[in-house]
Amino acid sequence: EKQGYTHYMLKEIYEQPRAVAAAIEPHVNPEFFSVALKNIGFGQSVQKLEELDSKADWEKTKEVLKNIDRVFIIACGTSNYAGMVGKYLIEQLAKVPVEVDIASEFRYRNPVIPPKSLVMTISQSGETADTLAAIRMAKEMGATTLSICNVRNSTIDREADGHLYMNSGPEIGVASTKAFTSTMAVLNCFAIGFARLRGTMDEATEKELVKSLLAVPSQMEGVLAYDKYFEEAASKLKLFRGFLYMGRGSSFPIAMEGALKLKELAYMHAEGYAAGEMKHGPLALIDERMAIVMVAPTDHLYEKTISNLEEARARGGKVISIGTGDNEKLRAISEHYLAIPKAHWTTNSILTVIPLQLMSYHLACNLGYDVDQPRNLAKSVTVE
Ligand code: F6R
Fold this sequence. Notes:
The structure is a single chain. It contains 14 helices and twelve strands. The chain has about 375 residues and is of the alpha/beta class. Helix 6 links the parallel strand 5 and strand 6. Helix 9 (about 205-225) runs parallel beside helix 14 and helix 11 packs parallel to helix 14. It is globular, with a radius of gyration of 20 Å. Fructose -6-phosphate binds near residues 131, 176, 260 and 264. Fructose -6-phosphate binds near residues 260 and 381. It comes from Bdellovibrio reynosensis.
């Protein structure tokens, strides 16, 4: 079943280009480069979704979304980080305020959910106890709910008013990989569709964004080549005392996700930070035994990210950086520089996370740990 791969996780990392393509496919028209969200089925049962008339359903979805002026995204773990990327996409493109919350916090803090709110949950398994409780609570409070699940007909999927799917295929490795990248792809589609119907995006921009989204699967193929790189680099990287992951904007959740992957797989201490927060504390951690993992694709925050990186380096931190293309500056100041292809800011996150997945995978293998089944963790967290 591992089809020649040593682990499910590695197989699933390699399946990402296909998984992302499958996540996008239902919602984009590759001829006109337009988005029409397919068969969300607001108010329909999950069993009926396949039979819906897609055009009529899209009209219905537009009616529902036209009434939304605030979005809450609720999830746990890696799915929560995908939700954070979604916040940047939806706020920037559709100009609707988005709040992202951890399900276990949301459900117990008596959240204020104003009328016209959309509560979106993200869950690969569709069975996560806290996320399920959160969507039930949101429904009771009168919100419109929309789930993004991988497992169709899972409990959360059935509970939601509207339904989107990651379309990743079964994810077996406990550490989530392809579900994460597929979710970011679905969120791109959602944000574009939502922005168009709210009138915050013109047709030319829609075309540009859909084109860049359609280019992602083949761009991902190239980034997967870092597999070999990290296989070799792992024996050096494991000597670091800790890893500080940083990024700004939509690269901030990628820093969080990178740090989580390293913790859960290699059992090494890692923290994810917004790069701008460094001088508010974490700079004190930095010395030559600390690795700085900087997620710095070329976007409108790049220059600011670089000045944070230089500060960290000046304190002796060793740099592992991810940037766009042949970036000589980053290459010069980094021990390890990993390039992603030039992409629109909306899709950078789908590409920058791949080297981080591969780095954690190879560190864990090098240290002799069970990558598919890390200690103390379960694939589906059905108790709180
Ligand atoms: C990390 C990981 C977990 C899950 C979290 C939510 O690699 O897999 O953090 O993302 O338990 O799971 P789902 O998405 O099934 O609700």
